[in-house]
Design a protein that fits this description.
Helix content of chain A: 25-40%
Strand content of chain A: 25-35%
Oligomer: homodimer
Largest sheet of chain A: 7 strands, mixed
Number of helices of chain A: 12
Distance between the termini of chain A: 26 Å
Radius of gyration of chain A: 22 Å
Structural class of chain A: alpha/beta
């Protein structure tokens, strides 16, 4: 027996045409540790967008009911050679009600419950999910629980990772995002110092209103000295950047090194011995990352993704993190949305252009049943 | 009592004037574990040049006997604020004869011996050096022993570091250098796979004549496919780049990721799980490092310097490395020089412009006694 429902698919043809469409799909009965979730809400996160739309030409695309067809420019088209011709589901996370389960006890225990889940196919009326990754929501609504995984676990992951590496302070860029606001609260709760970098005065005000102590505006003339002041006060030689392209990481390394050098008593041609560590965890700017030779050789820059981090941290740590998220879903880990859209509305021109811009505080929520 | 001799000093004034000059200097008697070395030969390595001349304007400089005065442009002038006004000695390494020692047994045992040393002031007729870092040269000449530290230990350090990190293959850029030629021999001796990146066909031929199996020409049209072929054959997801600026690191990460993706059976929007690691250990190109968003998030890039690596590796490893260098100074670890210059000749226009260009195979050797 199978269940039928509407689902969104994205297909990049070898000729460079990207087709994103809502179609009828068949959902097989769950087996083993699987559950079938009737999806009620799913956020559009930056981490969904690369697969959903990538850098396709939305202005010149053709739009029809429940369908968009656009051109994928180079070098993005060739870079995604691995997906050419494949019809792929999208949507990392969401929330809904378990309507069928596999045979495992863990799966069976979830029948009828509202859960947050991480199916990778959340833009759909139904999704098969792994019971071990489902979080029973109890009284929390599907909308409030839809973003229970990606942002909360990433923000918690930063603090966990920093602590594993012996750090007591973190820098965070694009810090006024939903995730950034969570991080302000987590760091406050955990006594981790946090230096927030934002782009606008209103974002400074927002984070200060949440209790953030150090907020630096990258658009201000005194950005670098203010960043240095915050680093000197907190010892934040460790940071996370979701922008990726441009000079955010470079500015952080530069400020870290200048603070470290100002504390040295003798000149060293190779710079300070202070280890400096940055992670890029997103690509809000898909341009190249620019690193100038102005902070010696004592620095390390890595990509950061949630899944490999959780694998490294282990099941026990992950379960502790998830419990904390569940207990604070409507407070520390609350998300806010600019607009709710159906599967079909996701593929309308204005909506697609708007949510792909990934502006701070303007996240979309998909409600597949309208 | 003190010894008198000629020494080279570099001074960057707060107004941006760089003065490099040969002057009479007093060398105090060595104490404790120090030895006084009558310096006979010292190489001009890329790692000396940042302090010696940096990016000063050599074309517009004033040259007189044993002296050069040049302008240091921005942003380099401000970036070196820590040295403004300080009269600094230069020259990481060299070789000569121990003419006086401190009271320690280790120091006293070296009296009268020819040694390689790492005084940090090697462009001088005399230098105070730490006995524990001196390598007695026996029958090896000062010229053959002058480069016994920086290049050999760095090349050996790459292989040690790779092994510590569980790697069996290395990528090396600008691989036709003195250091690169040593690395070809070391990797051959140690069974470490090596992918060499060079810029010219004649450098391909040179490294092949030394027995290198994988040599890729970055100027060739098929650079990327050839690099991928070499990575696929060797599993080299780990590499060292002395160029720093530009896209060398980016090309390596890109090729590594494409090889890793080609081995995957299912498409993953985040790229491969293959960890990719690169180190920048020099700045032959002082332009910015460019990293494009085309290899997912499973990569790490760090600066690499010999001194912190040796500190991390420990004394036992360092001593094992030094013994290997000494035993093979005229074979595996032999250096070659384009030209010998006196301290005064170092400061002549043609010489300074020539050695600062850091062209592969055109290293200078300083002989302070003429």
């Amino acid at each position: 027996m199978t269940t039928t429902g509407k689902q969104l698919f994205t297909t990049l043809a070898p000729d460079g045409k990207l087709t994103v469409e809502v179609a009828e799909a068949q959902f097989p009965d769950p087996t083993g540790n699987q559950v079938l979730v009737k999806m009620e809400a799913a956020p559009i996160n930056p981490s969904d967008l690369a697969l959903l739309l990538g850098q396709c030409d939305l202005d010149g695309a053709e739009y029809s009911a429940g369908k968009l067809v656009a051109t994928m420019p180079e070098p993005f088209h060739s870079a995604m050679k691995g997906r050419h011709g494949q019809r792929l589901p999208v949507g990392n996370e969401g929330a809904g009600t378990v309507v069928a389960t596999g045979d495992s006890d863990m799966a069976k225990a979830l029948i009828g419950q509202r859960v947050a889940c991480v199916p990778g196919s959340a833009y759909s009326q139904y999704a098969l999910a792994d019971a071990s990754m489902c979080l029973p929501l109890g009284d929390v609504s599907a909308e409030d629980g839809a973003s229970a995984f990606v942002n909360p676990m990433t923000a918690l992951g930063f603090v966990e990772n920093a602590r594993m590496d012996g750090q007591r302070a973190i820098i965070h860029a694009a810090a006024a995002s939903n995730l950034g606001q969570m991080l302000v609260k987590i760091c406050d709760e955990d006594g981790m110092e946090l230096v927030n970098i934002v782009r606008k005065q209103e974002q400074v005000d927002l984070l200060k209103s949440l209790g953030a102590q150090w907020v630096v505006n990258s658009s201000a003339d005194d950005f670098l000295p203010k960043l240095m002041e915050a680093i000197a006060a907190t010892d934040a030689y460790y940071g996370f950047d979701p922008i990726g392209g441009g000079t955010t990481v470079d500015a952080c390394f530069k400020a870290m090194e200048r603070v470290a050098v100002s504390k040295m008593t003798a000149y060293n041609r190779y710079g300070s011995n202070q280890a400096k560590r940055m992670f890029i965890y997103g690509r809000l700017d898909t341009g190249p990352t620019i690193l100038t030779p102005s902070y010696g050789f004592g620095w390390t820059l890595s990509g950061w993704l949630l899944t490999p981090f959780l694998a490294q941290a282990g099941v026990e740590t992950m379960n502790r993190m998830r419990k904390r998220v569940l207990a604070n879903l409507t407070t520390t880990f609350a998300s806010s949305y600019k607009r709710k859209v159906t599967l079909e509305q996701m593929l309308e021109k204005d909506a697609a252009i708007d949510y792909r811009a990934m502006r701070t505080g303007e996240k979309y929520l998909v409600t597949p049943w309208g």
